[in-house]
Specification:
single chain; Tetracycline Repressor, domain 2
Length: about 180
């Protein structure tokens, strides 16, 4: 891919992420192209269907979770708390997009693939947390995915107080 095409693709994803986060998934592709300062044909060259653009933005969020997991694994004794704190921040930053994505009808195989990729990211976190004694032995990466989704709900709650007490309560419940 030429450098200008890479820049256009990155710009489209960035603009789409902001639009989806702020306005939901109903933002038109024409509007996204206009905000990215590219033609609609350029958008369609990179993303033939709007679902392709939604998936590209989703991949960026999953990449953020992957980076959070990698960073958390640097401190094995705190891997679970560091990861869940970072996951909560990722979800807070992307709350509007994630809410809209949850209501969007993605094909089942696409949702399954996103779930598999996310579980693969979570498996090393679970393994390290179990070795550190901070994660119940009967739970696995799929359970941690459910817990991350639970934190997403907390991140969407009205901000009456800090989210940290929720995280602390959750961590106590996950300890063996």
């Amino acid at each position: 891919m030429r450098s200008d095409a890479r820049r256009n693709r990155a710009r489209l994803i960035e603009v789409a992420a902001a639009a989806f986060r702020d306005e939901g998934l109903d933002v038109g592709v024409d509007e996204i192209a206009r905000r990215a300062e590219v033609g609609v044909a350029t958008l369609y060259r990179h993303f033939p269907a709007k679902t392709d653009l939604i998936l590209a933005v989703t991949q960026v969020v999953i990449d953020d979770l992957d980076h959070a997991a990698t960073d958390a694994l640097q401190r094995p004794e705190r891997v679970l708390s560091d990861f869940l704190g970072a996951a909560m921040r990722v979800q807070c930053r992307n709350r509007g997009f994630l809410d809209a994505l949850a209501r969007h009808d993605l094909p089942g195989d696409v949702r399954d693939e996103l779930g598999r990729r996310t579980v693969a990211i979570l498996e090393p976190v679970v393994d390290a947390a179990k070795r550190a004694g901070t994660f119940r032995p009967e739970l696995d990466a799929t359970d941690l995915l459910v817990i991350v989704r639970m934190l997403g709900v907390v991140s969407a709650a009205p901000q009456r107080r800090s989210l940290e007490p929720y995280l602390a309560t959750l961590l106590r419940g996950l300890s063996p």
